[in-house]
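PROTEIN DESIGN WORKSHEET
SECTION A - STRUCTURE
LENGTH: 340
TOKENS:
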């Protein structure tokens, strides 16, 4: 299939481009490079041994989106593009609603006009909110995220369900990611956040490589095994392959829309991740325990049974693999793609 990957220069998008290409798909990328570096494209060409064409524009631009579909054959879309920082979304709610919703609307309209009805959408475990029982299951309702970012995901999921309800020719996969970490085992692509990382793994990696002095651990008085928060960390390579599996499944089913969790089903605490990273890198990760971060849940992990059974997909990489691959990427690229 000819697959358009929106946000294909980003962290999860770039890893997915590699897996889609390896599975025999012909991939093209659209990215506004708002949170991704153009240098990633050359790395993707080298990793895939082909040329991945890229269209550099913002999908909120309906005319440009329409022109893309008018000039390129597109059989399926994997839609990653969007703003994604929880804290930032609290400060800039309008930007998040406008960007994440409008880009999806112009994509859906252009797809419809040009006869493309196969879509894989990047959603998030954040849609389960703080009331859902563990482990999170796809059939849980009501969805109620507690940040503007998370609410854009709930809203888009709702839009997709309404669209698929009235037009059952759609083939839509909604993938709810847990905590993506790790990097391609070559060390050629990985996560390269702008500024100070919000997320735990890139922060740990930057401490290990000497870009930051110390990690701050947000709270050790949660009702968990060691008092620090537990998350379902999933290797970005497993996650990327999940998109290939989802695309295979929706191409051969008559269900207009289906949702799958992509997680391991296991929780790892902040302290456990720190220790695993120290083992993998051989570097000390000095840390201070500080107060809780507003909005953090004590624990979050998936029930991945539906994806295991229906997609034939299982997350196979361990926390030690996640740390080893993150360290390879970070130590080979101490300043991320800036080094290119
Ligand atoms: N943490 C620290 N120090 C840091 C950063 C994080 O102690 O410097 C802790 C957090 O308090 C939390 C854990 O590490 O307990 C994980 O935090 P992350 O920011 O890495 O991940 P979150 O679970 O908060 O957020 C992730 C995604 C979001 C998504 C959310 C809910 O980044 O996009 O899961 O699914 F919305």
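SECTION B - SEQUENCE
RESIDUE ASSIGNMENT:
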């Amino acid at each position: 299939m000819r697959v358009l990957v929106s946000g294909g220069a980003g962290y999860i998008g770039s890893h997915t481009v590699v897996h889609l290409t390896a599975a025999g798909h012909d991939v093209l990328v659209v990215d506004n490079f708002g949170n991704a570096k153009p240098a990633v494209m050359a790395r993707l060409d080298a990793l895939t041994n082909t040329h991945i064409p890229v269209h550099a524009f913002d999908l909120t631009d309906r005319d440009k989106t329409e022109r893309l579909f008018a000039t390129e054959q597109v059989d399926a879309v994997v839609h990653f593009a969007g703003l994604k920082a929880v804290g930032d979304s609290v400060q800039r709610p309008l930007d998040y609603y406008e960007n994440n919703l409008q880009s999806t609307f112009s994509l859906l309209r252009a797809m419809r006009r040009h006869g493309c009805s196969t879509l894989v959408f990047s959603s998030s475990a954040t849609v389960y909110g703080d009331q859902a029982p563990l482990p999170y299951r796809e059939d849980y309702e009501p969805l109620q995220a507690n940040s503007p970012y998370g609410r854009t995901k709930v809203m888009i999921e709702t839009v997709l369900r309404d669209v698929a309800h009235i037009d059952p020719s759609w083939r839509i996969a909604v993938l709810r990611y847990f905590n993506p970490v790790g990097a391609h085992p070559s060390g050629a692509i990985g996560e390269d956040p702008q500024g100070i990382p919000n997320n735990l793994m890139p922060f740990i990696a930057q401490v290990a490589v000497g870009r930051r002095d110390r990690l701050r651990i947000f709270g050790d008085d949660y009702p968990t095994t060691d008092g620090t928060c537990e998350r379902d960390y999933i290797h970005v390579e497993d996650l990327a392959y999940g998109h290939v599996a989802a695309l295979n499944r929706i191409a051969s089913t008559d269900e207009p829309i289906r949702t799958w969790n992509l997680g391991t089903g296991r929780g790892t605490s902040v302290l456990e991740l720190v220790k695993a990273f120290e083992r993998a890198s051989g570097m000390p990760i000095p840390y201070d325990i500080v107060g809780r971060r507003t909005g953090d849940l004590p624990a979050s992990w998936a029930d991945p049974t539906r994806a295991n059974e229906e997609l034939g997909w299982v997350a196979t990489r361990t926390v030690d693999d996640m740390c080893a691959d993150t360290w390879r990427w970070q130590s080979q690229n101490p300043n991320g793609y800036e080094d290119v």
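SECTION C - NOTES
The domain at 200-231+266-310+317-339 is CATH 3.90.25.10 (UDP-galactose 4-epimerase; domain 1).
Residues 93-113 form the longest helix (21 residues).
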